[in-house]
Write a structure and sequence with these properties.
heterotrimer, A alpha/beta (about 180), B alpha/beta (about 350), C alpha/beta (about 250), A: about 180 residues, Pyruvate-ferredoxin Oxidoreductase, domain 3, 6-stranded mixed beta sheet, 6 strands, about 25% strand, C: about 250 residues
């Protein structure tokens, strides 16, 4: 198994940390991972993205070329990366902020109202947690929900740890969205 | 077994420097390596070390020279335009035979270029500064090696009283990968040259000006060359992947080598006997090993994130035994696996 | 019978490499005497510049290092930060300190690095053969200003002490001259004070010394021409004064 994943959205939606949590979760399960954020001047323009490669074998090239999965949290993110998903790939998009429908019919698309799910738990910044919960339900071979919640502990700084129970609740809620 | 942690390349360098016993860090902000000084700005003073943000790259490398002369393990980190600014004192450090570590997270050029990862500093790493001198250059390909090579750089630097450069790139700097932290280095060598105050002994002088006949520049340069020959004999590092029966050998270092490795796998899947030769020390370059390989290879392809720099050393190494082709992308555009595969297939 | 003069114990008895009538020899001796009186030579690390004083370390029984042109105070920063208990002296000329090394100078001063800076200002590049320096006087003839320094083209001479004095952290700043015995003695006091402050672990001490370069000024070293030129041309533009002394309470 080798999965090439891209998280993309506005700066501040936590796409880079989402990628990191997923990477740690997969690492805890003994998989090879590589996480590359967009950085520098790219970060200042309001869009942010990161790529994650998860593999059962060692990762030779950590560079995303055949995008298996894209998680788009904003419209510009979806417009940019939807065309880059490989045939038969998966697009998870945040329908709270994206009213447009995806155009491709050769990929699987899943909408998630991530802002509402986050808000339901009293958080304005749990959008990334929601999509992570959904992602591991859809593609369990990347990581299990259990690993994801454990990874939170390692990825989040001491200062942010108090939010972890809420973050876990958001993840679980999204995880249970689909059968 | 030690626990794996997910760590960003830059932070791995910072942590490795601490484990190596680095006591003084001087740097100047430049993307994409800023997480190194940020990391050390808290961690180094905690351990009683010196952290100082200098007024310039030139200031930083000269502070490194001062700290090296004072007798401690010291480091600066930068990215390409900053490395250019440091060249002046790199030559002085070499002339003074002072050890230090320089990490260069290469970005695209020329000029301001961009901040994406690149490998276009091969020349200024392996052929830097004015005068006849060499620096040891290590080229890691992943976060684990970034940490391991940082420690190795400190050790080689002290062993030979030379500059050791860790040549990364913007991608390696920014990417996070699982890492097993290396063991801390316990001892550093005795430094008979260190300036510690001439109490109860003769004064010590560290100087690169050589006007006096008996310690002339010519003799000094011959001594340096003898030392460099020792390094060449003892410290060459390289890696091979499926080269034993390879008709075609890709030559690549750092991140390019990982891309090339995937291309080798794809080529093998389609029945073509491809292999990968990865120089790990860019100086000393593994010339002999590459020459030996060239005698049983049909063609070589150098793959770089540059317009072709290392390829010159590849050509020099193979001594005309085999044709050396080149494929490179620059400025954040990475070599494409499919293009490599296509190119090698065209040799058939 | 008491001894009234001896060669400083802190100095190496080696032949001088400086020209006849050069300022550096006098300044070196003053430093050597101060080192003797304060017994600090074994605890001092000398940082040499590029310029005529590149070999300054060979005159003292102290550890020493050369620096690239202009970078002496950055090198000294590296040393003083590592060796907090040592006295670090950066010895520099005008081209080194105020042209190619301006950034290193101002930032070391601004950080208040614990070091003595001895700045010998002779208004010319000596070692390279008498070119215009940042402190070359208006109308002064040099090998690159054959018709005299044209301030419309090249600006006016830079006043080092005044620049340093605009910063918060420097501890002690004084400009001296060595054009006569009285001023030589005053210069020694300034150098000694700067070293005393280092011994006490105080901050950045900057002593500028106006001096002669008869060779590159094209003057006879055996007459008083060069000495008088310092007094009559340089001193009026570079006022001799104590700019700052944090070790002394100022009168309220």
């Amino acid at each position: 198994m080798r999965k090439e994943i891209r998280f993309a959205g506005f700066g501040g939606q936590g796409v880079v940390i989402a990628g990191k949590i997923l990477s740690i979760a997969a690492m805890m399960e003994g998989k090879s991972v590589s996480h590359i954020p967009s950085y520098g001047a790219e970060m200042r323009g309001g869009t942010a993205n990161c790529s994650v490669v998860v593999s059962d074998d060692d990762i030779a090239s950590p560079i995303v070329v055949d995008l298996d999965i894209c998680i788009a949290l904003s419209l510009p993110a979806m417009l940019k990366f939807e065309p880059k998903i490989k045939k038969g790939g998966l697009l998870i998009y945040n329908s709270s902020l994206i009213s447009d429908k995806p155009k491709r019919d050769d990929i699987e698309t899943v909408a998630i109202n991530a802002n509402e799910i986050s808000a339901k738990h009293g958080s304005t910044i749990g959008v990334n947690m929601a999509v992570l919960g959904l992602l591991v339900k859809k593609v369990p071979e990347i990581a299990k929900l259990d690993s994801l919640t454990k990874a939170l502990d390692e990825a989040i700084s001491e200062r942010g740890k108090k939010h972890n129970p809420v973050n876990i609740a958001i993840m679980k809620d999204a995880y249970n969205l689909i059968p | 077994m030690k626990k794996k942690i997910l760590m960003r390349g830059n932070e791995a360098v910072g942590e490795a420097a601490l484990l190596a016993g680095c006591k003084a860090y001087f740097g100047y902000p430049i993307t994409p390596q800023n997480e190194i000084p940020e990391y050390l700005s808290t961690r180094l003073p905690e351990r009683g070390g010196v952290f100082l943000q200098a007024e310039s790259e030139i200031g930083a490398i000269n502070m490194v020279m001062g700290a090296a002369a004072a007798g401690v393990r010291t480091m600066t980190t930068t990215s390409s335009p900053g490395m250019t600014l440091k060249q002046e004192s790199i030559s002085y450090l070499a002339g003074n035979e002072l050890p230090c570590v320089i990490v260069n997270m290469v970005r695209g050029g020329p000029g301001l270029g961009n901040i994406s990862g690149a490998q276009s500093d091969y020349f200024q790493a392996t052929r830097s500064g004015h005068g006849d001198f060499r620096s040891i250059v290590l080229a890691p390909e992943n976060v684990q090696e970034l940490a391991d090579h940082t420690i190795k750089a400190f050790e080689l630097s002290d062993k030979y009283r030379m500059i050791a450069i860790v040549l990364g790139d913007g991608y390696l700097a920014q990417m996070s990968e699982p890492l097993v932290l290396p063991d801390p280095v316990k001892s550093a060598p005795e430094r008979s040259y260190a300036l510690t105050g001439a109490k109860g002994r003769e004064q010590r002088i560290i100087a690169s000006l050589r006007l006096i006949p008996e310690t002339s520049l010519d003799a000094h340069n011959h001594d340096l060359q003898k030392k460099y020959a020792e390094v060449k004999k003892n410290e060459v590092l390289f890696d091979t992947y499926k080269t034993d029966d390879a008709d075609y050998v890709l030559v690549a270092y750092g991140l390019s080598a990982r891309i090339a490795k995937q291309a080798v796998r794809n080529l093998r899947n389609s029945g073509i006997k491809a292999g990968l030769f990865r120089p790990i020390t860019l100086w000393p370059f593994p010339s002999d090993q590459l020459e030996a390989l060239s005698k049983k290879t049909k063609k070589m392809l150098a793959v770089e994130m540059s317009m072709g720099q290392m390829v010159e050393d590849v050509k020099l190494s193979v001594k005309g035994n085999v044709e050396v082709d080149f494929y490179g992308r620059t400025g954040g555009m990475l070599p494409e696996i499919d293009k490599i595969v296509e190119r090698v297939k065209s040799y058939e | 019978m008491s001894k009234i003069y001896e060669f400083p114990k802190s100095m190496n008895n080696v032949p001088t490499h400086y020209c006849t009538g050069c300022a550096h020899g006098i300044v070196h001796k003053l430093i050597g005497q101060c080192m003797d009186e304060l017994k600090i030579v074994e605890n001092t690390i000398v940082v040499a510049p590029v310029g005529c004083a590149v070999l300054v370390y060979k005159y003292f029984k102290a550890d020493g290092i050369e620096s690239p042109h202009g970078r002496a105070q950055a090198v000294a920063t590296g040393i003083t930060r590592v060796h907090k208990d040592k006295i670090v002296m950066s010895y520099q000329g005008d081209g080194d300190l105020l042209a190619i090394g301006t950034a290193e100078t101002l930032h070391a001063a601004n950080r208040g690095e614990k070091m003595v800076v001895i700045f010998v200002n002779n208004a010319i590049y000596g070692m390279t053969g008498g070119q215009m320096a940042p402190t070359t006087m208006a109308k002064q003839v040099t090998s690159t200003t054959p018709n005299g320094r044209d301030t419309d083209e090249t600006g006016h001479p830079i006043r080092g002490c005044e620049l340093i004095n605009s910063l918060e952290k420097p501890y002690y700043i004084e400009r001296c001259s060595i054009h006569d015995i009285k001023h030589i003695n005053k210069t020694k006091e300034a150098i000694k004070k700067a070293f005393e402050y280092q011994k006490e672990g105080k901050g950045y001490c900057f002593v500028e010394i106006l001096g002669m370069c008869p060779t590159n000024w094209g003057m006879d070293p055996y007459s008083r021409t060069a000495i008088n030129w310092v007094k009559d041309e340089m001193v009026p533009y570079f006022p001799l004064k104590l700019f700052r002394d944090k070790g002394v309470r100022t009168n309220a």
